[in-house]
Amino acid sequence: MPIWCPQPWRIIFRKRGFTVDKAKYKQYVELIRSRLSDYRFYHSVCVAEAAVQLAERFGADVEQAYVAGILHDVMKEEEPSVQRAYIEKAGERMSNLEIRIGKVYHQMSGAAYARLELGITDPDILHAIRYHTTARRGMSLLEQIIYLADFISADRHYKDVETMRAKVDEGLEPGMFYALTYTITDLARQGRPIHPDTVDAYNWVLERRG
User: Fold this and answer.
1) Residue 187, phi-psi category: left (phi > 0), alpha (psi -120 to 50), beta (remainder)
2) What is the pLDDT of residues 149-206, one digit of tens each?
3) Whole-angstrom Cα distance, residue 51 to residue 153?
4) Which domains occur in the chain, in start order?
């Protein structure tokens, strides 16, 4: 599978000229290729590409964005027991709710893996991986970029994706508000638990909107 992404939505990004020395991070690309299915590998590459474009658009570090994007799902397809072992090894304690919400395992174990196995110490990259599913109150610029890149990457085809991309085109704040509203509404509709970090992130964005 090629390391590139079709970008049918690229027209929404007005600025160009970003550069990332992708050869510098070839080890990460090969790592996720070996750890993930073709589908998940392709998604990770697409998220990295989207993250770079968002970083260029909103003034974040493009290399941080690429690294966090390419690694955000590094533990996505690992067994839950292995993920929990990494989380514990990293010194994190899972709440009872987090144990129940299987989808949050990979964001926590992914950050742990990046630090423990890959030697990544940049807190912004680690936090971007750590909160890319739930979001949280007080997210950094990079954290918001990875959170949104995961929603709008070129491989995404869910019902409201074009609206999501349009909201991100309006700006970071409209994009975050729409993404969090969408997430909370969708989880509530399905009768699934909502992580407190997601609720806190929604309230934080709402407060910032005035």
Assistant:
1) alpha
2) 999 998 998 999 999 999 999 999 999 999 999 999 999 999 999 999 999 999 999 9
3) 8
4) 10-209 (1.10.3210.10)
